[in-house]
Automatic annotation (TrEMBL):
Ranges annotated as biased composition (Acidic residues): 337-351, 463-484
Top-level taxon of origin: Eukaryota
Coiled coil: none
GO biological process terms, semicolon-separated: axoneme assembly; cilium movement involved in cell motility
Organism: Mesocestoides corti
Cytoplasm is among the record's keywords: yes
Annotated keywords: Cell projection, Cilium, Cytoplasm, Cytoskeleton
Gene Ontology cellular component annotations, sorted alphabetically: radial spoke
Protein's name according to its UniProt entry: Radial spoke head protein 4 A
Length: 484
């Protein structure tokens, strides 16, 4: 019969169990103690549970702080801490609570239909918007969307044009005009004047950033040349606003100008609202809120006919403006028939569809796909998505609605490969070296050569006589002048 364990044996065994393999690991005694505690709480006793508890105890249950003496002060500075003071200052402003609360509520509705960001990203971005609102306290900001880039992404915020943006906008306009003039000198197409700040495509101001650690940058105003050129190119953004755009036809500006042009195109094509929520103003050129609006039910908003959704943004004309304007005369304009054709084009005024027209009237894609599709979640949230611009959504409930874009900033190609425009001037054809094209001409005979020389000799003599006659007349005039 074995001798029972004594007190010394128990102390020796416990000392072994208490010992740790390293400074940051748990002892075997602590692991067994945690397992017994969980068993006493009523958990079943099996091998799988013991293994799971021992694994969790060794990895997740306990965390040891590192030695603060090992941390160097110069290595402890993080970029995110630079935004901390701005965020704390922004949270003290009561005017920002509604903006951040609305953003959280909107993304909660978006998550109900499978669109949006994570809660952590939404919270971080709401704090980032708060820092922007502190800088411009007299403006209200709305989250426009997120455009993906090859290196970094763009988070975009929209606000109405105000006087506090005039000075910043003037600097942006001068830079844009310089870039446009350089491209315009290389382009023979007629150019159109840009819309003034506060009207048309420039009625909104947009700020972008690459993340919570980056600064807000105000985008410049857009020009018709940039709109028209962006329609003819297909470029993925990189995430660097100062990146050069190498395309044909040459784009008049940098990536920030291309980003602004894509934002204008997406907004004009995909910003929609429930019917009767807006009404046109006296001029019929701007949508204003309708005070007598009665909210539509989710079933009405989810109707497949799409008659209860309308466009509340102005249509962009082919010339790159929302209002037709006469073309500017190019510096190197040709004469004759070309000038007459330009005058005829100037006389024809471009007209787009009326404001607040139903989205059901939009044309289908080339492959027959409808321009819009609608679905409804079990909770009643309605999602209307654009097939022309993948990533453009309108999300609505019975109490609220909003527009958001999350995508690559590219228009749908209808399943076909991108086809660039024809190069100008056209490429020369290859030389035809067939026998018919390269047939050698027979040499002229002696009689033909003599006749040719005689004919040209008479012509040369007539030309010489004319020159001598002119010279004699000039000399006579000079003599008369000398006599005077």
């Amino acid at each position: 019969m074995n001798e029972p364990f004594g007190y010394d044996t128990l102390v020796w065994a416990k000392s072994i169990l208490v010992s740790r393999l390293s400074n940051n690991s748990l002892s075997q005694y602590d692991v067994l103690l945690n397992i017994i505690k969980n068993l006493l709480k009523g958990h079943p006793f099996d091998e799988n549970y013991l293994y799971a508890q021992s694994h969790n105890s060794l990895t997740f249950d306990n965390t040891y702080l590192c030695n603060f003496e090992d941390v160097q002060p110069e290595n402890a500075t993080l970029t995110v801490f630079g935004c901390l003071s701005k965020i704390i200052k922004a949270n003290k402003s009561p005017a920002l609570s509604n903006v951040m609360n609305n953003l959280m509520i909107n993304f909660r509705d978006a998550a109900d239909v499978g669109v949006g960001f994570s809660e952590v990203e939404v919270f971080d971005f709401s704090q980032k918007m708060a820092s922007l609102a502190v800088k411009f306290p007299n403006s209200s900001f709305t989250f426009w969307g997120k455009i993906f880039g090859k290196v970094s992404n763009y988070f975009i915020v929209e606000t109405n044009f105000a006087n506090e943006f005039v000075r910043i906008a003037e600097n942006a306009i001068s830079t844009t005009n310089d870039a446009t003039s350089q491209i315009r000198s290389q382009n023979t197409r007629p150019s159109f004047p840009p819309e003034i700040p506060g009207e048309g495509l420039n009625s909104k101001i947009y700020f972008v950033c690459n993340g919570i650690e980056s600064e807000w940058v105000m985008l410049p105003h857009v020009t018709p040349d940039q709109i028209r050129c962006s329609r003819q190119t297909c470029v993925l953004l990189s995430g660097n606003l100062e990146n050069n755009i190498n395309t044909y036809p040459p784009f008049p500006g940098k990536e920030k100008h291309l980003l602004r042009a894509q934002i204008a195109r997406i907004s004009a094509a995909t910003h929609i609202s429930p019917a009767d929520f807006f009404q046109p103003n006296e001029d019929g050129e701007e949508a204003i809120a309708n005070p007598e609006y009665e909210p539509l039910s989710p079933s009405e908003l989810a109707d497949s006919s799409l008659e209860n959704w309308v466009h509340h943004s102005m249509f962009i004309l082919p010339q790159g403006r929302t209002k037709s304007a006469p073309a500017l005369k190019p510096e190197s304009s040709s004469h004759g028939e070309d000038e007459e054709e330009d005058e005829e084009e100037e006389e024809e005024e471009e007209v787009g569809p009326p404001l607040l027209h139903p989205i059901a009237e939009d044309d289908d894609l080339d492959d027959g796909t409808p321009a819009w599709c609608v679905k409804q979640s079990p909770n009643g949230t309605v999602l209307v998505s654009s097939n022309y611009w993948p990533g453009a959504y309108a999300i609505a409930t019975e109490e609220r609605w909003w527009n958001v874009y999350i995508g690559w900033g590219q228009k749908q190609l209808s399943g076909e490969a991108y086809r660039p425009i024809n190069l100008h001037p056209p490429v020369a054809d290859q030389f035809d070296d067939s026998e018919e094209a390269c047939r050698e001409v027979d040499d002229p005979s002696h009689e033909e050569e003599e006749a040719w020389l005689a004919a040209h000799a008479e012509l040369n003599a007539d030309v010489a006589d004319d020159e001598n006659g002119d010279g004699s007349e000039e000399s006579e005039e000079e003599d008369d002048e000398d006599d005077r």
